[in-house]
Structure formats: C-alpha cells, structure tokens
Write a structure and sequence with these properties.
binds zinc ion, alpha/beta, single chain, TIM Barrel, globular, eight-stranded parallel sheet, binds D-xylitol-5-phosphate
Amino acid sequence: MIKISPSILSADFANLESELKRLEDAGADFAHIDVMDGHFVPNISIGAPVVKALYRVTRLPLDVHLMISDPAFYLDDFIKAGASFITIHTECVSNVRETLTRIKEAGIYAAVSIKPGTPADVINEYIDILDMVLVMTVEPAFGGQKFIEACLPKIAQVRGIIDAKNPKCLLEIDGGVTPENAPRAVSAGANVLVAGSSVFGAPDIKAAVSALRCGKGG
Ligand code: DX5
Ligand code: ZN
C-alpha cells in the first residue's frame, strides 16, 4: 500500500548503476530523481541525459521531480528519457495544466508538487487530471534537511481533496522523511514516501526501506 521512492540525490553519483541495483535489492518501489536548474531552486543536480542513462540500467520506475522554472520547455527531453512519473511545480512559470496534459498524452503519470509555503487548495485546479500530488516537507533544493512538521495538516488537506475528487491519485511527500516521522505523514494521508538521506545514509538500506514502509520507529 505504501510506496517507497528513495531519492538518488543522496546516492553515490560516481556509481549510480550500482546504487540503483542496491535500491532494487532493498525493495524500493520507484527511484526518485531530483532535477534542479539552479534557478527555480538554488542548487544544480542532474538533467535528462543522466535520466536516460539510468533508464537503461534499472527496472525501477523513474519518479522524476522537476525543480526547474520552465518544465514545459524541457518536457520532451524527460519524456524521451524514460520517466514513469513526471512532477512539475505549481510555482513554475510554465502553463501547468497544459504541461500536465502533455505528460499524460505521452503515457506518463503526471504530478504537481507544492512547496511548504503553497496552500493545498491550489491543487483543486488540476486534481481532475492528476495521477499524483507531491507535498514538499522541506524547502526544495537540498537533501538532508529536517522534516517540517507544520506540513502535516496540509498533507491531510490534500488527502481530503484527493478523496473527494480523484481517489486514485497518489499522495507523495518529499523531504526529511525518516522511519520516525513517516507514520505521522502516513496517518495524515501520504501513500508514497520519498527519502534520500534516511535511505542512503543508513547502514542497511534494505532495513531502512522496510522501516519506512512499516512505520517502525514511529
Ligand atoms: C529536496 C529533494 C528531495 C531530497 C530528499 O529538494 O526534492 O527529494 O533529495 O532528501 P532527504 O530525504 O535527505 O530530505
Ligand atoms: Zn524530490
């Protein structure tokens, strides 16, 4: 029921193929890939050529989180790269609805993300066409930040909107997620958990993935 999508932002970038293999062996459901442009967020990570290379070496669905100002401009590159999910931010400059429609027309799951300061109700505008909503639980840009507890009521609000208007839509959270706080987020309504440092920083990543899924430590 709960899906785990480890963020490779905390993986060893010199050995991404073997890091993805470790995630497969650990029972991860998806691989979360953070794409940052140094403009929408104050950090630069990876782009479509790397996503394309990762697609060739893993069977995990690629959960691509675009933290970029103009996702519409780059969208075709990520569609061709092999993404299974593409998430764009409601705070971007592109036409969000049109971009989501293009994602869906390409046969890819379409998602919007909202930053901690963005209210839940903005998703009402897109909920009819969404496959997933991503609620950020840190300010996007860097791994290893602390989970913002104040986002929990917003997760519950998003859950309410999803249940009322599009119950099949997934609810993902991202940022500072650990086995300790995951049960609170799941109680609030999350069903896809992104985790970078609490997976790749763990001595046993298989145990970390199952602890996130089972809510151990909560
Ligand atoms: C933050 C990214 C996250 C990040 C999560 O901007 O969107 O996916 O890598 O890392 P942790 O789990 O370490 O907060
Ligand atoms: Zn992310």
